[in-house]
């Protein structure tokens, strides 16, 4: 971690280095103990609490942004030219990311049940997290790969509901086979292209 004394003054604008240190500190706290506090995150990042409050309204929005950013870097939207292959690839990557970050995601969900501030931003996190799949379905609809009246919100919720159910209960694997089976089910549910 960078020594805060060597970091440029953050001022009113977000300093990229300070921001990344804060994000990293929040993720580390989730991984280690599941307890994220503004004071602890600020200390670990080498910034003042006021810096965090200037950029986020509290720990809830900070955690949501940190998790969404982490997911966006590990789960890019593929574009092979084949919708089925893209869907399978995205689901495999999403499942692998969720499995690798299982402790963090479970901690986030537990915090959302106990902390009103985190519960309030959980829907925003879900929207950010679902965006890659939603955009893939929209592209598929625009290209005629799925039915023009397919309900993209329902398809997206089905996919992430499946992911979260298996992640939280741990009763079945989130592996490549599950991703392929889910993709087939989603494609059946989206109907033939019109």
From TrEMBL:
Keywords from the named record: DNA-binding, Transcription, Transcription regulation
InterPro entries associated with the record: Homeodomain-like_sf, HTH-type_TetR-like_transc_reg, HTH_TetR, Tet_transcr_reg_TetR-rel_C_sf, TetR_C
HTH tetR-type domain ranges (all copies): 16-74
Stored PROSITE patterns: HTH_TETR_2
UniProt GO MF annotations: DNA-binding transcription factor activity; transcription cis-regulatory region binding
DNA-binding region: 37-56
Identification of the protein by name: HTH tetR-type domain-containing protein
Source organism of the structure: Mycobacterium aquaticum
């Amino acid at each position: 971690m960078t020594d805060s004394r060597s970091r440029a003054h953050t001022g009113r604008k977000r300093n990229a280095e300070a921001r990344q240190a804060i994000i990293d500190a929040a993720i580390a706290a989730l991984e280690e103990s599941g307890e994220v506090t503004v004071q602890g995150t600020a200390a670990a990042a080498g910034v003042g609490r006021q810096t965090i409050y200037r950029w986020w309204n509290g720990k809830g929005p900070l955690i949501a942004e940190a998790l969404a950013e982490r997911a966006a870097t590990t789960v890019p939207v593929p574009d092979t030219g084949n919708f089925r292959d893209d869907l399978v690839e995205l689901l495999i990557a999403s499942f692998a990311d969720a499995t690798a970050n299982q402790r963090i995601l479970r901690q986030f969900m537990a915090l959302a049940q106990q902390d009103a501030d985190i519960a309030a931003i959980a829907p925003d996190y879900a929207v950010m997290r679902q965006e890659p799949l939603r955009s893939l379905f929209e592209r598929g609809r625009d290209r005629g790969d799925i039915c023009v009246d397919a309900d993209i919100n329902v398809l997206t919720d089905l996919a992430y509901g499946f992911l979260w159910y298996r992640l939280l209960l741990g009763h079945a694997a989130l592996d490549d086979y599950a991703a392929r089976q889910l993709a087939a089910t989603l494609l059946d549910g989206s109907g033939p292209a019109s």
